[in-house]
Specification:
4-stranded mixed sheet, single chain, alpha+beta, 12 strands, 9 helices, paralog of FGE (formylglycine-generating enzyme), 11% strand, globular
């Protein structure tokens, strides 16, 4: 037998080498989801703390459903579903892909068990791995953008998993930590660096995704917008600065608030950001403000970026401070300016922009056409990323969006002002 590889063997080798990076990325992203759930008990992973949140178990299953339905179901005819009933249980909002279990009732899905969900993940993982290895050229070409979307989609759910877990644990009177840590207590006397203002790019600026990397459809097409002169803060608003707003009666008078926000704050009894514990709170008695986070209850750090704010709270603080929120276009144009800090990796930053389509926007085709476009009403854009965002998932053109009342996210604010000086 000849030891020289045949032309067919050489082609197969190149074929595998071209697909290996996607296979490795797939394995890495899928493993991270499991690792994020690892600190939690099976009971933790089944509970739904509010209609807008989902159980951890559901996140693990839904991301598997996405790969099984959008990739394997469409492009791998030989694939056998793990359980045909899961198509109904774990569809989120895709009308074109069939019926679905009501979102507010996901916490009632005590079956399938957590162990069954992990078996489901393993079944889908094996199917994707076989597909990457065996797909013909045409199927592989069609699958690449769907696999890329599926990985980005799972990373979105990794962040949602953490935000939903934090809300869930905040509902427990014991205020248990998601993760134990040996880190020292947060500083009590820290002071942030003075806030500085930078002139932002104005006039005609280009907005939207550019280049060859991945982007969601709502980041396109790249287009020109006209910006009036403005200034933008070089850092985020801190807990200490927001505490001054609270101490000044910011939640007790309507002056700084938008009408809808003031009505909601009154109806919900808001007196501080979500997860702030006032001095003397019986759940964690202390003589100072404390904050509940993934590491449990810690003394409020005056220098830390304020988080878990609704859009209404962010806008009220900005007005109280004699400023405003930047538009999403101002934020993107300023991203990367020398001296601008904390644009990513701390908290998502509310903007003063409604979540609307860009001029010429076209949603993706097929089943994934429902991914973003149909939510472009009644939502507000956030920019940047947070401590819960997976590494490498953020980019300057990324458009996150939530209803203005949402405050369980890792969301804060950066200030802006009109004028160039």
């Amino acid at each position: 037998m000849s030891l020289n590889p045949s032309p067919a063997a050489g082609t197969a080798g190149r074929h595998l080498a071209q697909r290996a990076p996607i296979a490795a990325q797939f394995a890495q992203v899928r493993a991270r989801s499991v690792a994020l759930a690892q600190p939690l008990s099976p009971e933790d992973q089944c509970v739904q703390s509010m209609p807008d949140a989902s159980p951890v178990k559901w996140h693990l299953a839904h991301t598997s459903w996405f790969f099984e339905t959008v990739v394997l179901g469409a492009l791998a005819p030989a694939h056998q579903p793990f359980d045909a009933r899961y198509a109904h249980l774990f569809n989120s909002y895709y009308e074109a892909l069939g019926s679905r279990h009501p979102r507010p009732l996901r916490g009632l899905l005590t079956r399938p068990s957590l162990a069954d969900v992990h078996r489901y993940r393993a079944h889908v993982d094996a199917g994707i791995e076989r597909f990457i290895l065996d797909a013909d050229a045409a199927s592989w070409q069609a699958a690449q953008p769907l696999l890329a979307l599926g990985l980005q989609h799972e990373q979105q759910h990794q962040e949602l998993l953490l935000t939903d877990v934090l809300h869930l644990l905040s509902c427990n009177p014991l205020l248990p930590a998601y993760r134990d840590t040996d880190a020292p207590a947060l500083r009590l006397a820290s002071q942030p660096e003075p806030l500085r203002w930078h002139k932002g790019p104005d006039g005609a600026v280009q907005i939207g995704h550019q280049g060859e990397g991945f982007a969601f459809d709502n980041e396109t097409p790249r287009h020109t917008v006209w910006l009036q002169p403005y200034r933008i803060a070089d850092r985020l608003v801190t807990c200490g600065e927001y505490a001054d707003f609270v101490a000044d009666g910011g939640y007790d008078r309507p002056g700084p608030w938008l009408s809808d926000g003031w009505a909601l704050a009154r109806a919900q009894g808001w007196q501080a950001p979500a997860y702030w514990l006032a001095p003397g709170d019986p759940r964690a008695p202390a003589d100072q403000w404390q904050v509940f986070g993934l590491d449990g209850v810690r003394p409020l750090d005056p220098a830390a970026p304020v988080s878990q704010l609704s859009f209404y709270e962010a806008a009220a603080y900005a007005r109280w401070a004699g400023a405003r929120l930047p538009t999403e276009f101002e934020w993107e144009a300023a991203c990367g300016l020398p001296g601008i800090r904390q644009m990513t990796g701390s908290v998502w930053q509310w903007t003063r922009s409604s979540y609307d389509p860009y001029p010429g926007f076209q949603p993706w085709t097929g089943a994934i056409a429902e991914y973003n476009g149909k939510f472009m009403v009644g939502q507000v854009v956030l920019r940047g990323s947070s401590i819960a965002t997976p590494p490498g998932h953020a980019r300057p053109s990324y458009r996150n969006f939530f209803p203005p009342a949402a405050r369980w996210q890792f969301s804060g604010l950066r200030l802006a002002r009109d004028g160039a000086c």
